[in-house]
Amino acid sequence: MISIWLTPSKKDECYLQNIINELASEHQAPVFSPHMTLLSPVDLNENELHSVFSNVSKEFEPLNVTLAGINHSPNIWKTVFVELEESLELITLQQQIASQLSSTPLYEFLPHISLIYKDLPQEKKEEIIRKLAVRNSYKMDKITAMRTGPHVEKWERLAEIN
Questions:
Q1: Which of 3, 7, 18, 90 is 20 to 30 A from 32 in CA distance terms?
Q2: Spatial separation of the C-alpha atoms in residues 10 and 16, rounded to whole Å
Q3: CB neighbours (10 Å) of residue 20?
Q4: Which of 26-35, 71-80, 104-113 is predicted least confidently?
């Protein structure tokens, strides 16, 4: 399975990675790179992926995403996450990439940056949120294609636009 991510600038990546690493260590959860999923799962071969990224790279401009809140869900991929405002730039970028695909995945685009992947009781998630302090905005300057799946440690970066 391939996922298309919007990923943060070096400075914001380090900031978010520290939070992810701390939570992973504290709760024995997997470590992953900070990202905002634009589309997943995407069924592309290497040539199609190269073509999509080539087309998107011509117009891609880094953008800032803004915090809408911190939340949690029963979905392990959204255990605790930073909710992001749905800006016109984000929606346009997501639709631009989706329009390049021969078959668009059924993906509900709810912009967020996950901070931990772990099956936790609701009380524990709420406790994590109470203790968290996060920035109000992040610069996102790369689009990344990742081979993903149920085992985070096996995820693999396939391509990147910056």
A1: 90
A2: 10
A3: 20
A4: 104-113
Q: Provide the number of structural domains found in the chain.
A: 1
**Burial of 79 by CB count in 10 Å (0-12 exposed, 13-18 middle, 19+ buried)?**
buried
CATH number for the domain spanning 73: value is 3.90.1140.10
Assigned token pair, 64: 């800032």
- pLDDT band at residue 103 under the 50/70/90 scheme: confident
Q: What sign does the dihedral 112-106-155-149 (CA atoms) show?
A: positive
* pLDDT tens column, 72-97: 999 999 999 999 999 999 999 999 99
SS3 71: strand
Contact 144, 7 (CB under 8 A): yes
Residue span of the structural domain in which 64 resides: 2-161
Residue listed under structure tokens 């149920």: 150
CB atoms within 10 A of CB 123: 8
Query: What is the β-pairing status of strands 137-147 and 112-116?
Result: unpaired
Distance of alpha carbon 157 from alpha carbon 148, whole angstroms: 9
